[in-house]
Amino acid sequence: MGKQSAKLFDKPLERVLLSTITLNNQALSEAISILKPSDFSDNHSREIFKAILKCAESGMVPDMPTIYSTMQDMSATPETLDVLYGLAKTPSSINYPEIILKIKNYSELRFLSSFIEEQKESLQSPGADAEKIISNLQLLARRQTTTKKSSVISFDDLMSMDFPEQKFLIPGILPEGVSLLAAKPKAGKSWLGLDLCVSLAIGGRVLGQCVDMRNTMLLALEDSQRRLHSRIQKQSQGERLSLPNCHFDTAWPTGADGLIKLENECRARHTQFFVIDTYGRFSPARDNNDYSEHTAMMAGIKNFATDNNVSVLLIHHTKKGDDVADFTDRALGSIGITGGVDSILILERKRGQNDGILSLTGRDCEEQELGVKFDTMTCRWSVTGPAAEVTESRERSEIIEVLKKSNAPMSPKDIAERLDRKVGNVKFLLSKMLEDGQIIKPYRGEYKALPIKNTNLTICNNLSNSANFTNFEDIKELDFE
Asked: Looking at the predicted structure, is the pLDDT value of residue 179 above 80?
């Protein structure tokens, strides 16, 4: 008599949990934190749980009418909608924590069963790929180790622990850990990622800050080796560098295979810092807004970074448009991406301008906005100061330039129209500039640039006399300082 096979699923139990989730917010919170749609054994339950996740991500209460409406938008099949109707008659349970763990355990058993069968087939097939099988076994070992680790700690034990101070890759700007750098296409984010990777390998300067030397690697998944070569030459200004601790790759597997290869790379070369450009090319997720897929991917990256004590910078894109109150919402895709990182950096630069703003926040760093400038000669970024001060300084310069070009005093309205700004903002800045002695107010409600000093007027008068010079070289020799 053969051995009885292990039970791999319990559909009625899954339906009880789904029913409980629609009635109990605490059950919903725990289920979302532990389970993924793939943990459910049948397609109907998976689709219903996906709809529940979508409701929760959108801030909607996942009651039956809301879930039904969401599933219609997802083009759910009539059979799945019938299962959803049936949940109304399915009893809920107060033992949902135990049910969640059982469903998770069944999911792990199904994974192990499938994994073992796949490896058996691979070993028995002609020309078996030993390296692939070993990589798969490494993934399995890591998955099981992560699953078995206990994270429970008592209050007294936690408070008796001493932790080292937070370390930074870029002092005061970029802490160690997993970070996200997002910007619009062609805004200069890849230049910054390359600069960070090379400068850390040198132990040089990034964004004007001195950085410690580290072993680094850049996955330039949207570039070729030719482009990387050209960009490094541009940033190094032709200087020949030798950096055996800095590596690049332009082709990399996605998802779990990509994480396994990262771990192997980390052990082989003792790499301490990775730049992944871009996250979209590294993640296997097809839908930018799929919360569960991105949450799982980010958890894998975070676990890799924590387990190996390395830092990862994910380069990503921002959404179209700028009409969001919170700068972290500008990152493209689900909050599963931004919620899974330790720090977020958003780089903004208008087309045709070298000045930009770098907004950053994180779990272990101070939220701030910095003015930054892109040097078109070296293609490197530098910090110019707090964003508010830099922006105001630029706005003041623009106002002075407008007033200089005008032969007559100008009103705040005229200046605002010329600069395409709000009148109220221009009025406020004009009053501050008047106090600081940067402009004058000859008439009520009208402003004018400061008059040219007499010494400069004398020079200008001399220049108007053609007898004072005979050719262009004479003009070049004049000192206007």
From this structure: yes
